[in-house]
Design a protein that fits this description.
With 137 residues, the protein is an alpha/beta fold. The protein contains 4 helices and 6 strands. The chain has one domain: Rossmann fold (3-Layer(aba) Sandwich), CATH 3.40.50.360. Helix 2 links the parallel strand 3 and strand 4. The longest helix has 17 residues. The protein binds flavin mononucleotide.
Length: 137
């Protein structure tokens, strides 16, 4: 089974999650600039929200790689607790991508909020999510 971990991170919070998820499923974390060369059974996609939406590189990654994604699963961090999943799911489904029904989201440091996050508990949580997706997708 091929599993890829792809992320976009403007200030490093989602990058930490991506590296933890990747280590859990024995792969490397790569950014949304990546072009998939072969079909991946599972793509774990890390995205935060900025003014309510994912970075445009997340949408561009999905558009460029739609035919190479078996199942897409979303993880990320945000200040408010809202997940990029809400926007990514309909976008990906329109491209014909199967989207795993569960997502993982944790608090991410932003201004005076969530100063210590992602913390170890958040990193353990995303690792468990990645392993669960590998087992169930
Ligand atoms: C320009 C900007 C806009 C943001 N807008 C939102 C938002 O609408 N909702 C929210 O919950 N968090 C918002 N955040 C907080 C980020 O989602 C949060 O800090 C996240 O952990 C950043 O992840 P990153 O370090 O991987 O980029 C915003 C952060 C920035 C810098």
């Amino acid at each position: 089974m091929t599993i890829k971990v792809i992320y976009c991170s403007r200030s490093g919070n989602t990058k930490l999650l991506a590296e933890s998820a990747a280590a859990a499923v024995e792969t490397n974390a790569e950014t949304t600039d990546t072009q998939l060369e072969e079909k991946a059974d599972i793509v774990l996609l890390g995205s935060s929200v900025y003014a309510g939406s994912p970075d445009k590189s997340v949408y561009e990654f999905l558009e460029k790689n739609a035919d190479k994604i078996g199942t897409l699963a979303v993880f990320g961090s945000s200040a408010s607790g809202s997940s990029a999943f809400r926007k990514i799911k309909p976008f990906a489904e329109k491209l014909g991508i199967r989207v795993f029904e569960k997502f993982y989201n944790c608090p991410g440091h932003f201004l005076f909020m969530h100063k210590e996050h992602p913390d170890q508990n958040d990193l353990d949580g995303v690792s468990a999510f990645a392993k669960m997706v590998r087992y169930r997708a």
